[in-house]
Structures are given as C-alpha cells and as structure tokens.
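Weekly structure sync - notes
Attendees: PM, LS, DV (DV joined late)
Agenda: review two folding runs queued last week.

Item 1: First target. Sequence and structure tokens pasted below for the record.
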Amino acid sequence: MHVSAFAALCPAVTAGTGPQATPHPHLALRSDPAQAHSRPCLRSNGHPGRGVSLSFTLPGDARSAFIGRTVVATALEAHGLAPYVWPATHAVGELVAVTAGMSPGKELYVSLRHRDDAVRLLVWDQHPHHAEPDLATLCETRRRRALWLLAAVVDDWGGEWGCGEAEPPQRGIKSWVELPR
C-alpha cells in the first residue's frame, strides 16, 4: 500500500524511510452487500451500566477507525450505556485514525472501560521515542493539532483527554479520553 505524505504525521516517518502501511485483509472494502459481515455480538455481563472492560488490537491503518467505532458502539449498547455512544465513537475514531497516521503499519491497542460513572478510552501506539528534542516537540505538536476534533467533542461532553509517552518497560505513546456521565 502506498503511504502518502499525509498518512505519516510524524516528521521522522517518510514514505521512503519509515514503516510502510500494509493492506489488512479484514479491512478490504466489499462492494457486494451479501459479503458484508454483521456487527459484532457482545453480551452484557448482567450488570447494565457497570463493568465494561474491553481491549482489542487493530492494524495501524486509518481504515481501522471504522472497526474501532463499531466495536465501541456495540459494547456500550450491550452494557446499557447508549448515552455514551456518540462521544465515545467519535473519540475512538479520531484517536485510531491519528495514531495510525503517526505509526503507519504498526498495531494499535485500544481499551474501553466504564468505572465510577465515566467511560475511559485508551489508544496505545508503537510510535518511537525521538531523541532530538526539536523533533519530539514537532511530532507532539502535529499529533495534538491532528486531534482538534477530538478536543472539541471531549470539551463539549465535559471530559478530559491527553497523550504522553508510555511508562517503561512499555514503549510508544498512550492517548486517552475520559467522558463523565
């Protein structure tokens, strides 16, 4: 798959030297509706509105945002948390699309939790640490600017969001959103 200059948001990842996004067989668009898969079926744990705990891995491809939105919406609806569907699906879609653009072709980890009357989303990418401070600052600035729509949705909902380097021994960047009731 061709990686455009837009796809690699990090200034250190270029089409010629950085990781290349690879096509993922499960993300292929199908023109025949008979081939389309139905939405995932998630069952409630018997405690509507409490105890959602879901983690999954996605390919580092902008098309993964659709999968993330579908899984999060289905999980929230299955657990009686339909009021969170709109902001949470927007948030996960933005986080997955931007993190995939920061580290094209590398897997992303997504976590959804509902605790203490708040939904928490985490997207962890494998973006490398930049040793040069100017490059690190530029990269962080591009990530935050790309998340302008996420910031607007979270602010409108009265929530919080942020991103930062993962704690050792883990590597990469963790971006998170908290949406209160």
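Item 2: Second target, run right after the first with the same settings.
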Amino acid sequence: MKSSQFMEKAMDEHTDLLYRIAYYYVKDPYLAEDIVQDVFMKFYHSNYEEKGELRAYLSRMTANACKDYLKSWTYRKLQFTEKILQKEKMIHKDRLVQKEELNLLDMAILSLPLKKREAIVYYYLESLSVKEISVLLEAPESTVKSRIKSGKDLLKQKLVKEEWEVLLHD
C-alpha cells in the first residue's frame, strides 16, 4: 500500500495524461474516467517499486486496462447493439472556432486504426521519442516510425477536405 501523499502526488501529476490515453483508446469520456480510476486503484494496491519512470508504468497500466476493456464482452455487446439499432449520435456544441477545429482533429485521430492512433498520440500529443514509444508498445523502432508516418498520411487525407477557418482568415 502506498502513502496517501505519494498517491495524491501521483494522481495530480498523471491524471490528465492517463485520461487522454484512455480516451483515445475507448473514445468515451466517462469510460475513460472509470478506467483511470481503476488504474489508480490497482496501482494503490500493487507492490510497485521505483525501477523506472512512474509515468511510463501508469501509462502502460492504462493502455493495458483499455485493451482489456476493448476485448471484453461488455464492449463487444455494446458495439453489436449500436450496429443493430444504428443509433445516430447528435451532438450540438456551441464552441469557438478553435474548439471546433480541435474537435475535428480529435475525430480524425479517433478514426485512425488503433496501432496508428497509439503512435500518433504518444509521439505528437505526449511528446515521447520513437525509442520511448517503442519500449512502451513493445514494438521495434522501425515499426513505430512506420505507424507514425502512415498515421500522419491518413490524417492528412482526412483533414485536407476540412476548411480551416482560422487559416483562411489569417
């Protein structure tokens, strides 16, 4: 068991990162919050010893928890139900142009295949090096580089069609 001060410090420093990781995996903000809470609960009860960077350890725990969820019966059942009922999600948000464009970028990232999405998120949003991503994903560096490049190419294709109002008015 960890001291409450250590846990509070870890939660303060890493919650935002873990939430972003979980959100980009599961594409649901509420589910991402639940996963992050579960990760911190598991971390609290674990026998963690400082061997490396805590950030990487918690990131790996979060990624694994998300992958476990995506393999779960609950998730598959939910996906199946949504496909059968073909629910249309109507989201009306009143946002500034920048927020709308960030939303478009998020959607483009979320539409990427999982492996390419992981590489893009870690490289561009979390500023990890190719080597760090390679260790985190347990994949060769060349594989990580190709995932980043192909993910970036897919994003370009998806975003070329969008009109970026901020860029048009500058």
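Discussion on item 2: The longest helix spans residues 4-26.
Action: LS to circulate a short write-up before next sync.
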